[in-house]
Input
Amino acid sequence: MILSVRDLEVTFRAGPWFNRRPIVAVAKVSFDLDAGETFAIVGESGSGKTTLAHAINGLQETSNGEVLFMDEKVDVSRSRAVKPLRRHMSMMFQDPVGSLSPRMKVGDLVAEPFIIHKIRKNLKEEVQRLLSLVGLSGDFADRYPHQLSGGQARRIGVARAIALEPELIIADEPTAGLDVSVQGEVLNLLSDLRERLGLAMIFISHNLHVVHHVADRMAVMYLGRIVESGNTEEIFGAPAHPYTATLLSAIPNPDPDKVRERISLSSEVPSLLNRPSGCEFHTRCPWAHERCSTESPYHQNSGLRRVACHAPLDPGAQPPCAERAG
Output
């Protein structure tokens, strides 16, 4: 096991200075990651995916729980202890161009990890090697970020992430904002590098098609909590949590003649300032019953499948409000 996250919480405060209220953005999240494994984290925008990623990487202070990476605790308050760990755990940020300094040339950006960690290398040779590894020619070293396309900027981000040969990469929405063809190129690149370098990966995305393609296991987040986790194929084949079933039912079907039962939700996502009692999904859940509004659920299936639901769904279960959609 390369990473262990236990009961992790991240709390912010909002409101006027005289009455600032706590907002729990990540609530008691737990999961493990093995070496060489790809673990996907999915959910709607605002579900806490990026905040969780930053907390794992030591970029965000946590209010409770712990992150153990390579048997060492990741603690943002102990910056000197976290810095050596970051050599082995890289981060790819959401915005491929915005995450690159506009004042630095690509060559300097790719060489930066070696300089930060004071690793003696022939930097020109390393830059050329890394650019080649991500499918770019050496002359890209003299370009600035504004001269790159989204796909090229993403490749530079990959080059920076793998520069120090880490054991873990956290990829936050690595295909967001890219054309479909470029998305395929980036995914193939990450898959190839994962196999070649033996990388473990946390893959954060709201694109369920992509998750199905790349992830060994996955977790579904709602209001900062993991409501279902397990083997990717098993979850796609038979979602057990109503929220997971809702997300999967909304995936567009490329076959216009195939009809899918689409599950509709009756209300908006609740505010983190006013979390619902009991099961936090009960205000939107088509299957909700009285117990759901008063008791917080936690149900564990056999093996690694976990579902936070009082009554996990049977395969193919459909609520009365399901809509037929192509």
